[in-house]
Amino acid sequence: MAECMDLIIEPHTEDHDDSWDMFCEKAYMATFLHTRRFLSYHGDRFTDLSLQVTMGKQILGIFPAALDPVDQGCVVSHPGITYGGLLHAGKLRGESMVEALHAVCCFYRDSGYDRLVYKTVPLVYHQAPSGDDLYGLFRLGARRFRCDLSCAIDLSNRLPPSGRRKRSLNKARRSGVEVRTADRTEISGLWHVLEENLGRKHDVHPVHSLDEIIGLANRFPGSIEFVIALLDGNIEAGVVLFRTPTAFHAQYIAASKLANANSLLDAVFDDCINRAVETGVRYFDFGVSNEDQGRVLNRGLYGFKSEFGGGGIVHEFYEITLN
Fold it and tell me: Could you tell me the pTM of the whole model?
């Protein structure tokens, strides 16, 4: 246990899973990815090093983190999710955030670790302005070593879609495409298209296996859905939507060669964007378009996403030397 003024830093235990998830419901920048229900699907894949920041009996912040699988001296917040961060509900602002981050660093340093990697929560997932951690990282001398570029639509002030996207949407509609939510029996069909697509274009596999994504969807039925495009009854394209309080995020994008020839992804995204508008969230996030740890931008993919009426947002990665 480490202390900083009146702040107490202590390791998270399974006994506090419920209080952790309840805190996520009110934290300004938390999503379902930060919950223990989501993190626990990893099982024994990571050594959990998550912390709680408390004062008296009150939780002021939570810090999802785990040991870097390839560097036993490094803590990452969090290696199993897109973003981590020191999450709070308004009690860690200004100097309080600086103190809390310093106390977290002291705890890990005293526990024998050399480095802390901090993955910030992109602003489109903030329910209220919460950039205090970025200031705290600056104060602690953190080094930004990676920056990924994503594309998001501000649905309250959407930029005009390009003429090419409008023409492609009309082409998809003329093909007779059917776009709808997949039922559980159809997820495997979408996953087949996704695996073939990733293998053909990038020689990689999805981060989640079919069983894992079905398990996660069962845990979060209101937060994960599958939107598919069918031609002649066959699944040819689709996306996995992660729904958060402020944004819909396209976690996976899949399209067969036939789907590409008929611009079916335009119909899929038109449907998904309309769903986001009807739900009342502010943003639709297409996800990053980077390779090689952010150093390479897939210009064609980023251009395709931005033509729907979006602009750039960043995923920032910082490193703090603890010793």
Answer: 0.93
